[in-house]
Each structure stands twice: as structure tokens, then as C-alpha cells.
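User: What would this chain look like folded?
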Amino acid sequence: MNHLRTTAYHPSANDMVERSHRQLKAAIKCHQNNRWTETLPTVLLGIRAAWRDDLKSTCTELVYEEPLRLPDEFLTSKDNAAKFDDAAEFIKDLRHHIQQIRPVNGTHHGEKKNFVFKDLATTEYVFIRHDGPKNGIKMPYDGPYRVISRNKKTFVIDIKKKKVRVTIDRLKPAYIIVDDHSKEDISREIQTSTPNTITKEDQRTRSGRRVCFPDHLQVGYA
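Assistant: Here's the prediction, encoded as C-alpha cells.
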């Protein structure tokens, strides 16, 4: 049973929404009307048609690719035709600029690179990581196993006289010490170096007193 801790949701903590709400509230206060629902459409129309110096355009032109027709334009003359031509020319240039933009290949910053031992290219024996379920005393690696063949991504391992292909991400080189002498030579050296019995020697204390121990308690007694 897992206990998940979280904090309560506070809408006022969303800065993107609250910034736009602050702008709406300031614009509604400028109108002398107690019913703000009647003033809200006019305020939204003004925000959408407002000129943005950083974008050199309005929000409506970026969305619909043409300027928004305001109510006063239906009543005034069209003496400012050149002004609308400039806006249309800007939208044309903006559309051409957007068409020239090409997507950039994204990068996965959260992807971790697997560590690969350099000695895997030359080692003869490897350990295989055990990825299945295991108890507390289960060793993390199995082996060592002999390498039959290898490539850049996978190895062919001899596991219980069967050829098993394993990915290189699960392998770790095994460093095995090869004995120069056989077991017979080692046992022969031990027999010749160690005598069958140990000769008795007189043991004396600092005062010169001779100490004797029972024969059955002495090491090497025969």
C-alpha cells in the first residue's frame, strides 16, 4: 500500500491564466457598467485587435492571417486603404516566412546511455546480468560463461552446452586466473615440502625451566 502525498489545487497559482485575468479586470474597471458580463465581449474584442510591438502584429492576424474588422470600420470611410494594404503585405510576408521554416530534429535529454565495458571486445568469459525477479540473496550476475562469437550489439554465449544470444548491455567481462601448474604438481609440491611428522623440540621459559606437553596435544604427533 503506497501513500501518495500531494498538495491541493489552487487555480490562483496558475500565472499564465492569472496574467490574462488581471488584464481583463483592469479593462472592465474602465467601463462604467455594473454588469461585467455585458462589457466582457467588448474588452475581449479590444485585446484581440490590440497591436503587439514584440510580434509586430495582432493576435487575430497570427491566427486568421488577416486583420480583424472592427465595428467602427463599417461607419467610417475607406480613406486609409493604404494602411490595410500594408497589413495584407505583412501577412503575406509572414506566411512566406512560416512556410520556409523546417522542423528541427528533437533530442531526448532524458535518455541514459548504457555503460559498456571495453574488455568485452577481447574477453573469453562473461557474466550475464539477471534481470528477472530475485530474492535478497540472489546474485545480480550469472556465470561465468564462455563466449562463442560476438558482434557490435550481441554475443553468442555457451550456457549449459546451448548457444544463447545475449545483448551486450547485460554482459560484464569475467577475469579468470589460469593456473600454470596442474593439481597433481601442486599436490606433489605440498607433499615434498611438508614432513609427515614434526620433531619435538625442548621448550623453555625465560627462567630456563623446561616445559613438556602431552604427546596427544602436540601438532603433527604420529
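The chain has five helices and nine strands. If you want, I can go into more detail on any region.
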